[in-house]
Task: inverse folding
């Protein structure tokens, strides 16, 4: 089957210093894929490069066999929470409705059907009762749910999510993973930047291990091994008895 995402020789540099070097992989469709590596490994940069949010020094990106710029409508994005201006004066419903502009075009009026879709997406993430609440008045977990609803409203085939589990409570994390599995059941592909090594095997079908370059990529049971994690994390990795690999704190 044609890969959902193809990245070829992606290199990204900030101030002439490479932060991602010649990364290549082909992500299959209908999978939950974890992007895993230490802080500063280039995980968020990889997503931003794939979405054209930062320039590539070299390389290319294709979504279902065509350049990303021609396939934007097929892609949804949930950014890191700290990168969002939560003081912007708008409510939860308006944020979710922004996800519909890819279907109607910018600067065009949204239809009543778009509002219905947006409300349905808020319902799916348990936020329908907060539709008219200002986003600045929501908790961190609620804000994350709203941005997930916006991604759902895009009705994409491929989703990129940058640390969606950071700063949320256990109930929100459970709701997010249930939603990701629902997307997978619909044949959609979801790539997620993730930090908690202890939940990788539980959450993801495939894993991309990176540390400035690709260390390994493939099915979780084949790739998520101590040897590969040692290559990815180096001395910061140890084994906690029966709990599996985890990062040393501090």
Result:
């Amino acid at each position: 089957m044609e890969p959902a995402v193809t990245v070829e020789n992606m290199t990204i540099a900030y101030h002439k210093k490479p932060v991602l070097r010649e990364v290549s992989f082909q992500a299959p469709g209908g999978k939950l894929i974890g992007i895993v590596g230490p802080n500063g490994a280039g995980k968020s940069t990889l997503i931003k490069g794939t979405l054209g949010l930062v320039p590539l020094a070299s390389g290319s990106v294709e979504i279902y066999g065509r350049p990303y710029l021609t396939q934007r409508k097929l892609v949804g994005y949930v950014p890191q929470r700290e990168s969002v201006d939560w003081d912007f004066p708008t409510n939860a419903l308006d944020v979710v409705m922004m996800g519909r502009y890819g279907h109607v075009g910018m600067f065009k009026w949204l239809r009543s059907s778009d509002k219905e879709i947006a409300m349905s997406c808020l319902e799916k993430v348990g936020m329908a009762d907060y539709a008219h609440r200002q986003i600045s008045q929501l908790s961190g977990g609620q804000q994350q749910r709203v941005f997930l609803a916006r991604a759902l409203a895009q009705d994409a085939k491929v989703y990129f999510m940058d640390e969606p589990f950071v700063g949320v409570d256990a109930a929100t994390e459970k709701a997010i993973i249930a939603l990701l599995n629902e997307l997978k059941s619909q044949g959609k592909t979801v790539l997620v930047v993730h930090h908690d090594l202890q939940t990788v095997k539980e959450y993801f079908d495939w894993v991309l291990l990176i540390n400035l370059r690709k260390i390994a990529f493939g099915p979780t049971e084949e790739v998520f091994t101590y040897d590969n994690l040692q290559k990815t994390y180096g001395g910061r990795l140890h084994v906690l008895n029966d709990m599996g690999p985890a990062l040393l704190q501090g």
